[in-house]
Each structure stands twice: as C-alpha cells, then as structure tokens.
Amino acid sequence: xxxxxxxxxxxxxxxxxxxxxxxxxxxxxxxxxxxxxxxxxxxxxxxxxxxxxxxxxxxxxxxxxxxxxxxxxxxxxxxxxxxxxxxxxxxxxxxxxxxxxxxxxxxxxxxxxxxxxxxxxxxxxxxxxxxxxxxxxxxxxxxxxxxxxxxxxxxxxxxxxxxxxxxxxxxxxxxxxxxxxxxxxxxxxxxxxxxxxxxxxxxxxxxxxxxxxxxxxxxxxxxxxxxxxxxxxxxxxxxxxxxxxxxxxxxxxxxxxxxxxxxxxxxxxxxxxxxxxxxxxxxxxxxxxxxxxxxxxxxxxxxxxxxxxxxxx
Length: 313
Hints:
mainly alpha, 75% helix, single chain
C-alpha cells in the first residue's frame, strides 16, 4: 500500500508541474478515497483486510489516470459514491423516504455533471425492489424531488448569469436524446477501442478482465456472505454492467467518447474495488493465484506506462 500511495503522489506531482491548479483534483481524490472507505465500513463489504480497499482503489484510479486530471469527473464519482452510501442504508426500510431522497439528490447532482446518468434513475428504482426490498409509492416522490432539487438550487445562478450557465448541460442533453432516438445499423462490436487512445483502451480492457474475474469468483462463493451484503454486491455488479453497456453500445454515438468512458469507468472502479479485494482475500486455488499474480504484474506495468506518458506529455 505505501508503494501505491507513493505512485499516486508522483502522478499528482507530475500533473501539478503541468497545471498548478491540480491541487483541486488531489483534494477531490482524497475525499473519494475516504468515501469508499466509509462505504465499506458502514456496509461491511470487506470483513478481512479491509484496509486493502483504499490501496486497490488508488491502484485502479492510477490505471486510468485521465480521471485524476478532471475535477468534473472526480465530482461525478463523489456524487455517485454518496448516492450509493445513502442507497445502501435503505435495505428493508419501507419508510426511509428521507434517506432515499438524499440518494436521488446526489444522483441528480451527477446528472448535472454527466447527463447520461439520467439512465440510472430506472435502475435505482428497480434495485429498490430487487436488492433493497424497500420500494413503495413514496419512493417515486423521493426520486422526483431528489432529482429535481439540484436544478431548483441552480435557478438563482440562471437568474443572475442567464441560460449560459446551463448551456453545456443543455447541449449535452440534446446530443444524448438525439443519439438515443436514432438507430445506426452497425455491428455490436463496432470499432469501440479504436475510438480511444491506446493507453486508455488498454487500461479499460485490463480493468474489464479483472472485473470479470472477480465477478465470476463472487458468484461462486457468494454464499459465504450475509444476505444484505449479497444484495449490495448484486447492486454493484448491476450498476457496473449498466455503466459499461452505456459506454460500448455503438448505437449511442454520443456515448462513444473519451470523456464518456472516463465518466462511466469512474463508477466501474468504485464498484470493482470491493469485488477485487474480496477476491484477493478468498482466492485459494492454484489457477486463481496465478491469475492474481498475472493481473498484478500487468496492472503495475500499465500504471508505470501511464505515468511515463503523463511525464512525456
């Protein structure tokens, strides 16, 4: 873990040399590390070696360093972590509309930063019934009020600064709705990876392979966890799959961009971190250990390569 944090400090130091305002991103990154740690402790996702979750999170963030240089993406990640933290508190709480309101409030803030996150609203409502067992008719009101509250709070800025304050968000909404309404007859695989820089495409592939490995391990040994923990993990898995699908489906042309990949995988990293730590704690087979060492070697090489690219550019 000390080595991981030294690499993180080195990365931010290089970014700071190129842009002296990077201290904002570093502060947001530290807050996100703390929030993920709190998410784990409050819901007991990892019972053994829980301190590893911070080191794993930092490692995965270094795997896709483009996230570290964008304050907007780190704010989006923070909003999603806070939304998950409140959402997990609603487990089997039929009258927890106040807590649900805050879950949707932070999801609403996330939609202001990345409008495609609006597609997660039906997922959250579905998960209330499937995973949290807390859905009722009042949940719809909590959802509506929570999503709209950030926009209501932003109205004074619109009054003083005009609609230019929302110009970027409105343009993004228009592009998103246009892309969702148009159909492009293309094969599913398309040329997704060719649309991304090589280093980002490589990092995405490695992260997806690690996530798939940890997901398979979880499904094999999930019976050792309590029901509530299994429901939390199931939600994290579903959220990760939805975020990946939102990124790679070729029909949604506006989703196929570097920024969209960074936004989506900032959430995938949060979901994959506890799964990977859980996998490391419970791997006992020889093949599993070989794969763990293989992934560790590949990730280390990729992180060093990304830091080298940051230094050269």
